[in-house]
Write a structure and sequence with these properties.
heterodimer; A: about 325 residues; mainly alpha; two-stranded antiparallel ribbon; about 0% strand; globular; B: about 290 residues; two-stranded antiparallel sheet; 4 strands
Chain lengths: ~325, ~290
């Protein structure tokens, strides 16, 4: 198993060039707040999609409570910046770490459950987290909590990059391969001596950490955090990114995050239409292509055939 | 007698949960699918009852039966259109589809008629009877009697009719039932029809009791009814009834001691405790997953 795919360095450099170009455009004032906001939304959604991809796509654990961990990150980071008046970067890390801790607390008991029971348990936990924030007066209860707008393109871009790098490296490591074996057949991998609970919890905690980071960025992109922003519908929003992209495809999650964020920006004045389209996408994709649009393929798999000039066929991953 | 009143409230709320939970538990027992759209069938039932009473001027009981008939058809349609192709799909695919169907019903309905709530017609007024020194709203008694009648009817269907026998056979072992000449497709449709009719009835009596209905009203009662089904042991019919009643009572008492904002959390705490310590529910038997 190679540490990186051949496309790793070119893609990383391309990403940094993209960042520099956008940052240049922002500094020169050539793109306005609307475009910047869209880029921030896309990046936050990519973080969410990729972190949930690790839980659902790589490890095969069906969690539908991702918004709960996002809420933890959002509120904790808001407390750090607004009440303790510490720098934003500290707030993001605290948000991520506390969300990871929440992931650990939720994960250890509930990851003993399988399939739909796990789904329902995570949904229940997310609702409990939301109701807790709704009932704490310190963070404003149902009226929400005022925050300053601190999220900018640089923060979101680099945290998005870090998320992708960490999750790609995790997936390619021994841990990731163990996680994939759990996805393919939990009982068989258990029988092969893999500590399934350990790997499931690790993946869940990493996923929760980045959900918390995304929550921190999300909270500081508005002027207010509300419990109602992190309900079941938010979890479904994140779920659909992973489902559409492919259950097991990181680049699929990224592409669908970009695509669906743009779609929902166009539809933001028609929320019902947006939800109808989302639900039809969920149903139709599941009925006709239950593995998601890209399945477990990565975008680089499609290009490998062109670049390797028919040489040693290393187009197939050895993971399944 | 405050306590009797609270118990009575708890039982009425609980019997609404129980009626919805029966549909969850029957469908789960037969095709191992958490039918997320079930809460929305409940919502549609409430609206059908509302329109039947206000527009068609039906008597309450006629409206109840009318609503049950229509929701039964809706349940079968959902099964035939969305779930039938997924019989052999993975559990995750089926669950995602069910979430999709649920959202489609909610937002499709909002798209058609708007999201504004409706006030349910007050058919019975504010009559009450006194019982053991407590005044009890007549609507609570009505909910209780409708639920009891429907549950007895369900017990009769499941245990005494041919369809019920087929349902039990299919839920026990689909393949073997097929070999014995049972029409599995029709049996599954019958399950959806019965479960949805019960949810429709629950919708109508919910509207009567809470007097306000809106297109997203099915979400929370739907989830709580699912909790009730898990609590009693999913797939077990008496379990769903008991689970619903326990949940209703717990919720009423959580509200009564002044924690009404935590009421919704109580259901999920129960769910998680049950899933962790006794995933098969109160009445369930533990079974190992077969390889």
């Amino acid at each position: 198993m190679k540490k990186h795919s051949r496309a790793f360095w070119p893609l990383l450099i391309a990403a940094l060039v993209f960042y520099a170009v956008v940052q240049g455009l922002i500094l020169s004032g050539m793109i306005g707040n609307y475009e910047i906001n869209n880029l921030i939304f896309i990046s936050i959604n990519i973080i969410l999609a990729v972190s949930l991809h690790l839980v659902i796509g790589v490890t095969g654990q069906f969690s539908i409570g991702h918004a709960g961990f996002m809420a933890v990150g959002a509120y904790l980071s808001a407390i750090v910046t607004m009440k303790l008046e510490l720098p934003f970067i500290v707030a993001i890390l605290v948000g991520g770490l506390v969300a990871a801790l929440a992931g650990l607390i939720v994960g250890i008991p509930s990851l003993r459950l399988r399939g739909d029971y796990l789904a329902i348990a995570t949904l229940g936990f997310a609702e409990i987290i939301r109701i807790i924030f709704l009932n704490i007066d310190y963070v404003g209860g149902a009226a929400g909590m005022q925050v300053g707008k601190m999220t900018n393109w640089t923060y979101t871009f680099f945290f998005m990059l870090i998320t992708i790098l960490v999750i790609v490296n995790f997936t390619r490591s021994r841990h990731g391969i163990a996680a994939i074996s759990i996805r393919e057949d939990e009982i068989a991998s258990d029988a092969m001596g893999i500590n399934t609970t350990y790997y499931k919890v690790v993946a869940f905690v990493i996923g929760s950490f980045f959900a918390g980071v995304a929550g921190a960025l999300f909270a500081h992109n508005f002027y207010i955090v509300l419990p109602s922003q992190f309900g079941f519908l938010k979890s479904v929003d994140i779920l659909i990114l992973v489902v559409l992209g492919g259950l097991g495809s990181l680049s699929g999650a990224v592409i669908s995050a970009i695509f669906l964020t743009l779609v929902s920006t166009f539809l933001q004045n028609y929320p019902e239409t947006r939800m109808i389209i989302y639900s039809l996408v969920l149903i139709i994709v599941m009925l006709y292509r239950p593995q998601g649009l890209m399945g477990t393929k990565e975008i680089t798999d499609y290009f490998r055939g062109w670049t390797s000039k028919g040489g040693k066929g290393n187009g197939k991953d050895t993971t399944t | 007698m405050e306590i009797i009143q609270q118990i009575m409230n708890g039982i009425s709320v609980g019997s609404i949960y129980a009626l919805i939970a029966l549909g969850y538990t029957m469908v789960y027992g037969i095709i191992k699918l958490i039918n997320f759209a079930h809460g929305d069938v409940f919502m549609l039932g409430a609206f059908i009852g509302f329109y039947a009473i206000t527009i068609f001027q039906m008597n309450f009981f006629v409206a109840l039966i009318f609503s049950m008939a229509i929701t039964a058809v809706i349940g079968v349609l959902i099964e035939r259109i969305a779930y039938k192709r997924l019989r052999n799909a993975t559990r995750i695919a089926a669950l995602i589809t069910a979430i999709g169907v649920s959202l489609l019903i909610e937002y499709g309905f909002i798209f058609i008629r708007g999201a504004q709530p409706e006030a349910y017609p007050d058919v019975f007024g504010r009559q009450s009877v006194s019982l053991f020194g407590a005044t009890i709203d007549i609507k609570a008694l009505l909910i209780l009697s409708v639920s009891v009648v429907l549950m007895l009817l369900l017990q009769f269907i499941v245990h005494k009719t041919k369809t019920g026998k087929a349902m039990r056979a299919v839920s026990h072992d689909t393949e073997a039932a097929k070999l014995m000449g049972i029409n599995v497709d029709n049996t599954i449709s019958a399950t959806f029809a019965i479960g949805s009719a019960l949810a429709g009835a629950a919708g109508v009596i919910f509207g009567l009791y809470y007097t306000k209905i809106d297109p997203l009203m099915g979400v929370i009662p739907g989830l709580k009814a699912f909790v009730a089904a898990v609590l009693g042991g999913i797939g077990i019919i008496p379990g769903a009834m008991v689970g619903g009643l326990i949940l209703g009572l717990v919720e009423t008492f959580v509200s009564a001691i002044g924690l009404s904002l935590w009421r919704d959390a109580a259901a999920f705490v129960i769910l998680i405790v049950i899933l962790i310590f006794r995933p098969s529910g109160i009445f369930g038997k533990n079974s190992r997953e077969k390889v």
